[in-house]
């Protein structure tokens, strides 16, 4: 993207102030934040209601005040596709509103251990005020769930020490027995701009695992490595009725003259079948049939049965659904 954007997640603290190099401050307030009240209900930026789940760097460059209202249950805040970053949603998604909130799986029951045999649970307590300093500059942290979880993203929060103690390169691995590991993500030469700064990273090919292990392979040059928080983010279950939403979009585009009747029937029939797999939670079948839907779209487009605009709009929505269920 040409403009830097930052994803907005659940704050790790009740109040924090970030001092910018230009002398301005970013003030983050979440007065009722707690382990129970971990879901964003609403947000005001500089006193005005803010519904997008991301914020642009330009909006923070001269300082800003972010006031969060937190609650114990998931809300619809930031879930409309119009509120999602372009990096998280298709380029054109008219007609759909999908709630795709990510949750921190480590909020559920599980066990954390680390290479120093210290208090690894400090990294999973939803506050950056408790941090863990590893004597070894290349530590590992492991989290074991009581049941398999499919993490789609993860976050790391830098500590309050010098940036020489920040993780710089690392490997995230997954396992179902704690012995045989698969590499999920690998990063090199990463930096953390501020102290107690949270960065999010996407797992490109997520799968469900009972064990996750973060192995730090290099830091900023210090003798030790410090982290304040680690999160493993995913969806408890994919959003419901996405196929029905795309089917409604097909009808809308037909009414606007962007689709010929010959294509409408075939596309709707295909999506009706996908709806059944969606309700049954059959992820592999949803992905397989939505890939077939994309092939069907391509055929109709090449035959002149739908406009360029309709083709790209439906394709983008189909790709997004595949990503949600993959």
From TrEMBL:
SUPFAM superfamilies: Galactose-binding domain-like (SSF49785). InterPro entries: FIMAH_dom, Galactose-bd-like_sf, Glyco_hydro_92, PNGase. GO terms for biological process: glycoprotein catabolic process. Residues 244-322 form the FIMAH domain. GO terms for cellular component: cytosol. Residues 2-72 form the Glycosyl hydrolase family domain. GO terms for molecular function: peptide-N4-(N-acetyl-beta-glucosaminyl)asparagine amidase activity. PANTHER family: PEPTIDE N-GLYCANASE PNGASE -RELATED, PUTATIVE-RELATED. This is Uncharacterized protein.
